[in-house]
Design brief:
alpha/beta; 6-stranded parallel beta sheet; 6-stranded mixed beta sheet; 12 strands
Length: 339
């Protein structure tokens, strides 16, 4: 038998109206209660009745989601968390994977989501023309990348602060030859690698460390790219004693390259990543933790709230917390050799 809203309410120990508010992202429900209700709803296989709601509201009960790389961990994690929130509230997801310039141009020229979705979650950063095209849809818009921009609710983190924490940690434990694996060839208009590189340069300057361009390499935000970039850094005339990788996947690739070169971590080279990937704890990776799934879930809840409370004031930019997580891949440099 199909579970009803009353079944979810009884199992969660709340009223049916609280279940409705929680699953539709409305205010007045604590995060703890909201999470408990979502878990119970998923366990019982409950979703809100779409047919009845659609007749009453005129909505499609579909959310459009545009992504640059659906197969990459960050975007996949954000998408999965958002989809769970949408599904629990009775919404379907219409996914557009815009991984090439051609598909991206075609999407923003034709706007196939028009009249097919109630809101759009963008996991890519649109330029001015693309932003205007999305605003022309007349539906709520949200994103989990980039900074604040007109017409969007953006849920994200302070990339510069996170990168500063990572590089400053390496400086504070004594490293002077600090390399960086970046993602400069990432998605179009993506500001993340730019902000994290600025933080890297700022901390080096603050510590009186001269910037060496040979200690930077592009890792394409992939594990394979990280391995390739680390190999490039090791070929420098004076290799780094520590490396900041702008993502955990690139850091994992760097660890694989170091192992292949029979170098010990952190004895020979320290490595710090960014994300707190689900495997980071398993491999003992020091990293900057960001709530990747939390950003997707929060963006989804805010979109649903805008749909249910269109007249209410909604935040333009929500900044999620980050923290430094110290594990086994960083240590002071050995006293011998260049630092």
């Amino acid at each position: 038998m199909t579970a009803s809203i009353n079944d979810v309410a009884r199992a969660a120990g709340v009223s049916a109206s609280t279940v409705s508010r929680a699953l539709r992202g409305r205010t007045g429900v604590s995060d703890e209660v909201r999470d408990r209700i979502a878990a119970v709803a998923a366990q019982l296989g409950y979703t809100a009745s779409r047919s009845a709601s659609s007749l009453a509201s005129g909505r499609t009960f579909t959310i459009g989601v545009v992504v640059p790389y659906v197969g990459r961990w960050f975007f996949g994690t954000v998408l999965d968390a958002a989809e769970q929130v949408f599904s629990a509230a009775g919404y379907d997801v219409l996914l557009y994977n815009l991984g090439t310039p051609e598909t991206r141009k075609r999407f923003f020229t034709k706007l196939p989501v028009r009249k097919r979705v109630d809101a759009v979650l963008s996991l890519l950063i649109p330029d001015e023309g693309e932003s205007a095209a999305l605003r022309s849809l007349g539906v709520p818009l949200a994103s989990t990348v980039g900074g604040a921009r007109p017409g969007f609710t953006v849920v994200g983190i302070d990339d510069r602060l996170g990168a500063e924490s990572a590089v400053r940690h390496l400086v504070n434990i004594g490293h002077r030859r600090i390399g960086m694996i970046s993602g400069s060839s990432g998605p179009l208009h993506w500001t993340t690698p730019i902000e994290r590189r600025r933080a890297y340069l700022d901390v080096l300057a603050e510590a009186g460390i001269e910037h060496d361009p040979t200690l930077e390499a592009d890792g394409d935000y992939t594990l394979e790219g990280g391995e390739r970039a680390m190999t490039e850094l090791l070929a420098a005339s004076r290799p780094p004693t520590a490396v900041f990788a702008q993502s955990d996947e690139m850091a994992m690739g760097a660890l694989r390259a170091l192992r292949r070169h029979r170098l010990k971590v952190p004895d020979d080279v320290s490595v710090v990543g960014f994300d707190d990937h689900e495997l980071a704890d398993v491999i003992g990776l020091t990293t900057v933790a960001q709530p990747v799934a939390g950003q997707g879930a929060e963006a989804a809840r805010l979109l649903l709230r805008q749909l249910d409370e269109p007249a209410a004031e909604h935040p333009g930019h929500v900044r999620m917390p980050i923290r430094m997580v110290l594990r086994e891949t960083t240590a002071p440099p050995r006293p011998r050799g260049p630092q």
